[in-house]
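Page 42, continued from yesterday. The earlier attempt failed because a stray header line got pasted into the input along with the sequence. Redoing it now with the clean sequence only.
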Amino acid sequence: MSTPHTLLVVDAANVVGSVPDGWWRDRRGAAERLRDRLVGYAAEGLPDHPGPLEVVLVVEGAARGVESVPGVRVVSAPGSGDDRIVELAAEAADRTCLVVTADRELRRRVGEWGAGCLGPRTVHGPGQAPGSART
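This time it went through. C-alpha cells are written below.
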C-alpha cells in the first residue's frame, strides 16, 4: 500500500453546520456520522486528488472525544478548532494539504501555509463518499 501524500483536514464544526439536519441536538453524533462518511475518501480520494489520502477530522466543543476509526484520524482541539487546523496545515507545509471548510478567515490562514481549500459539499454533499452504501 502506498503512503498517503495528500493530507485532507476536515473542519467538523463547519461541515456539520453547513446542513440544517438537526445536528445541534447531538453535536457528537453529527461528528461521528461525518467521520464515518469520510472513511471512503481515505482510500478512494477526491476528484483531482487520488487516494490514498490521510484524512484528519478536527472536532471541538461538544464533539470532543469522538474516536478515530481506520482511515480517519480524529483530532480533538483543546481550544479553537480553527487554530488546530492551522497548526496541522503548518505541519504539512512540505506536502499537499487540503482543508475542507467554508470559513473565509480559516481559508485565508491555512492558505498562508500553502494549503488548498475545498467547500463542505466536497464531503457533505448530496452524494455519498466513495465506497459507502447509499441509505
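Notes: The chain is about 35% helix and 20% strand.
Reminder to self: strip header lines before submitting.
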